[in-house]
Design goal:
Blueprint lengths: L1 H21 L14 E2 L7 E5 L10 E8 L6 E6 L3 E5 L4 E9 L2 E2 L7 E2 L3 E10 L10 E6 L4 E6 L10 E4 L9 E4 L11 E3 L18 E3 L6 E7 L5 E13 L6 E10 L14
Antiparallel strand pairs: 1-2, 2-5, 3-4, 3-6, 6-7, 6-8, 9-18, 10-11, 10-12, 12-13, 13-15, 14-16, 16-17, 17-18
Length: 276
């Protein structure tokens, strides 16, 4: 009789465990979230995400994930019950969403959307006015007439509309300034410079202080550039890996750098964390 009681209890425990296991579906079999989009009202560091509702099952909410610089592992940045999420970003990156019901989740992450800028890792070099007359002193980040990025040329030459130029206010030293494209030469475009806050390389402040020139110091590795369009809106760029060295021409100075570019479509001011 004792053996029968033990056997009955064992069967009962197993049955209860089976019922408990049936109360939720196995993890990871919910419908995948569809149509994740970067809303067109996104601007600056304010990133607005929207997606379509998962109508199958009794969804409790949605988790929002982010990959800084578009690489590495997903990190959760939001948990909402709505179909939208606003992320105040400190870096550019990639987003995805998944639905959940209790401990059960979407079988896959949603499609991804990105706030990554155009990244140009090659080195560009421009020269101050004391360098050779044939040395390119001007730089254009993006020419929307030819759809071309990263163009050096002779600052002030007819037909070359530089966004910025290298210009030395004092001959014979090893420093140089970057100037708005229209400040030292005719025919250039308006631009403004911002020094990053201490240790902040992934975003700039559109409402912060902007200057028409920046004298480059040996400690400068990153500068942000605002590029207003005459038709409205601002594009933004980050120049990084900045080096200032003497030109082979006596008393000349050259500035070398790489850059990232965010178009005026949304006016995003987020970039990667790169400094070199």
């Amino acid at each position: 009789m004792k053996k029968l009681s033990i056997l009955f209890m064992a069967v009962l425990v197993a049955a209860l465990a089976g019922c408990a296991g049936d109360t939720t579906s196995p993890p990871g079999d919910l419908v995948t979230v569809q149509d994740l989009q970067l809303d067109t009202t996104s601007t600056g560091r304010t990133i607005l995400l929207v997606w379509s509702e998962v109508t199958e099952g009794d969804i409790d909410g949605y988790e929002v994930y982010f990959k800084k610089d578009g690489t590495g592992n997903w990190a959760e940045v939001g948990d909402v019950t709505t179909l939208t999420f606003t992320h105040t970003a400190t870096n550019a990156g990639t987003y995805s969403v998944r639905a959940y019901e209790g401990t059960n989740f979407s079988k896959d992450y949603s499609n991804t959307v990105t706030t990554m800028p155009q990244v140009f890792t090659q080195t560009y070099t421009i020269y101050d006015q004391f360098s050779a007359s044939s040395a390119h002193g001007g730089f254009i980040f993006f020419d929307d007439n030819t759809n071309t990025y990263g163009i050096t040329g002779l600052a002030g030459e007819p037909g070359f509309h530089q966004d910025m130029s290298a210009y030395d206010d004092s001959k014979g030293d090893n420093d140089v300034a970057l100037y708005s494209g229209k400040e030292q030469y005719s025919g250039g475009n308006s631009s403004f410079f911002q020094v990053p806050a201490s240790g902040v390389y992934g975003n700039c402040d559109p409402s912060g202080s902007w200057h028409i020139s920046k004298n480059l110091l040996t400690s400068d590795s990153v500068l942000f550039v605002k590029l207003p369009y005459t038709s409205g809106g601002n594009a933004y760029a980050k120049i990084y890996g900045i080096t200032v060295t003497e030109d082979t021409t006596p008393n000349g100075t050259k500035v070398s750098f790489s850059f990232e570019y965010q178009s005026k479509d949304m006016g995003l001011t987020v970039f990667t964390s790169s400094i070199n």
